[in-house]
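=== Given protein ===
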Amino acid sequence: MSLPLIGILRGITPDEVVEVGEALLDAGIERIEVPLNSPEPLESIRRLSEALGERALIGAGTVLHVSQVREVHAVGGRLVVSPNCRPAVIEESRRLGMVSLPGIVTPSEAFDALDAGASGLKLFPAVQVGIEGMKALRAVLPSGTELYAVGGIDAGNFGEWRAAGVAGAGLGSALYKPGRSAAEVGAKARELVAAWQLAEVPLRLG
């Protein structure tokens, strides 16, 4: 995967999901989640997985229960993203060979998630923790931990978050809202990808 950006398609419908997914891939976003509180989310994940699964990491967001992990896996999803830290959800995701990104805010949640086998961590809502809070959390996490900021991160502040040590970002309403066409989503995706690539981490001189 070339860019650590996750396209969050909350509210998308099965009939539009493949075209929108193609637009994201064309822009360089290769991680796509369909939150489970979207219309017919499992059908959308199934269609995305069948059409794009060999070129993208497809899965679900807002995964709260072990049973949902199994349902996502059954339709071809390989990514499980949650707003909270539930060890049983993480453990089942990893048992099935899926990528697990649980939501965390505190160090306790972060270490519980890592102990359960999380692939990475979703800092959510990032706007609540803020950049200074994230820097303090980053300082105690094991080296190499992938930390994704979700909620309040966009093209306007990519540089600040990257300089503070965030590994990636989840892009929700800045990228997709119900009613946006695939062309509109593709254009927004290209803008966000360009902004992420231009956001340079300042060189720290020792």
